[in-house]
Amino acid sequence: MFDTVIKRLDSSGTTIRCQDLASMLESLGFEVRDAKKQGHKIFVHHGVPLFTSGAYTCGHGRNPEIKKIYIKQVVRLLKRYESELIKYKGGNR
Length: 93
Fold this sequence. Notes:
This protein has one domain (2-88). It is 42% helix and 14% strand. The chain contains four helices and three strands. The protein has helices at 2-10, 18-27, 68-80, 82-88, and strands at residues 31-34, 40-44, 54-57. Strands 1-2-3 form a three-stranded antiparallel β-sheet. A hairpin with a 5-residue loop joins strand 1 (31-34) and strand 2 (40-44). The chain starts with a helix and ends in a 5-residue tail after the last helix. The model has no long low-confidence stretch (mean pLDDT 90).
């Protein structure tokens, strides 16, 4: 699962929509919720003790595309916690 998410995000360009990213993060065990500002999202993971939180901005409109800079930030965070996330998912990459 982890490898699939990373591959999709790395090859996406700017074609990832807000709901798609939230679904991918949730598939890895993250909880995604709205932040205080409209279009901003925060994600946390209760199964990875050292991970505090991450965030990204969706933009405006119904299910908008996410800017590449936010996708890169999410990928960087996921890769930083790769071993913990894989362990949480029972060793399934």
